[in-house]
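Example 9 (inverse folding). The structure is encoded as follows.
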């Protein structure tokens, strides 16, 4: 069951989505923590509906219209994305803005250690992640019509200030590690980098893979995409090597060699070779920034859970990890301050 007005939605789909016919069936898809997502079945066709959550929201958050735009721009690129069909900005249809895209039948990997696979399969999956992330950072934003998809320059500073503001807005408790991180990030900015398309949430569980092959069929959850530094996107992906499974779906503590999963350094070298870009010298800053940002995101999830408008039933449990991530980020920054160079293997 959903809170969607099914007859009203069916009327809109008949007018705006090619091949829509027959009785409409709606199923809530689980897994996402931000924008509620549903599977739409009608006749022999399947689609996905992704909407803004109802209720009071943070400014500029849950921008499904931006998701739709970037997916539409990437339809004929080297980045695998679902086919998109239509965007609805009329909130009277189902109560909030939404868009429709194809349902992609594929595998989603929640656990980055990929249990049950052979080492060679795991290696192939991680090499495919290298390829896809490099493809995102190689998109010609001029040809794709994305030159105004974000403000040029000063990306890290703007992101730092934006997320600090969002954190303060959604803060439900005092986390001293977050206060320390905000101060540290202000005091240690690296040089400004290049500008490319960035996904903003590139994790293994945001890539749908072929049912039997180590081939990416679709990158999903583009809510945080914009124009920015590719190194920041890369460091977000690399956080998995620095976090434990308990902290946030991490790889730390696993024997990567026996699993066949590349080390952090090997993953970065693969991305560097495919993208033609170098890993930044101040790598620890990029990792710390992303842990700070992830903690901000989790804090927002926790706040929405307490307000009753979260997208997932386990939102409060997920959001409570904000403290763990903040502490992990401050531990990494503190090691840098103490001259230990952090935990990075790069």
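The amino acid assigned to each position is listed next.
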């Amino acid at each position: 069951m959903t809170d969607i007005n099914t007859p009203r939605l069916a009327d809109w789909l008949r007018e705006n989505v090619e091949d829509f016919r027959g009785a409409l069936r709606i199923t809530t898809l689980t897994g996402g923590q931000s924008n509620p997502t549903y599977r739409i079945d009608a006749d022999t066709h399947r689609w996905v509906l992704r909407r803004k959550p109802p209720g009071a929201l943070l400014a500029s958050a849950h921008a499904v219209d931006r998701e739709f735009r970037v997916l539409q721009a990437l339809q004929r690129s080297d980045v695998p994305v679902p086919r998109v069909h239509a965007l609805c900005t009329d909130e009277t249809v189902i109560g909030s803005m939404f868009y429709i895209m194809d349902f992609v039948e594929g595998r989603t990997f929640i656990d980055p250690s990929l249990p049950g696979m052979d080492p060679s399969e795991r290696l192939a999956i991680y090499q495919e992640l290298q390829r896809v992330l490099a493809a995102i950072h190689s998109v010609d934003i001029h040809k794709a019509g994305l030159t105004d998809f974000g403000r040029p320059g000063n990306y890290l500073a703007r992101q730092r200030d934006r997320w600090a503001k969002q954190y303060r807005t959604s803060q439900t408790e005092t986390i001293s590690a977050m206060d320390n991180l905000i101060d540290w990030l202000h005091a240690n900015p690296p040089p400004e980098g290049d500008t490319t398309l960035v996904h903003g949430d590139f994790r293994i569980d945001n890539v749908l893979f072929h049912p039997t092959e180590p081939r990416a069929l679709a990158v999903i959850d583009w809510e945080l995409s914009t124009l920015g530094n590719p190194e920041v996107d890369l460091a977000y992906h690399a956080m998995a090597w620095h976090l434990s499974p308990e902290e946030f779906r991490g790889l730390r503590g696993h024997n990567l060699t026996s699993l066949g999963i590349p080390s952090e350094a090997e993953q970065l070298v693969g991305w560097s070779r495919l993208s033609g870009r170098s890993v930044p010298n101040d790598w620890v800053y990029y990792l710390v920034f992303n842990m700070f940002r992830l903690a901000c995101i989790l804090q927002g999830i926790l706040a929405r859970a307490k307000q009753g408008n979260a997208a997932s039933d386990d939102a409060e449990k997920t959001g409570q990890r904000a403290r763990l991530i903040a502490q992990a980020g401050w531990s990494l920054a503190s090691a840098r301050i103490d001259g230990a160079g952090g935990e990075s293997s790069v």
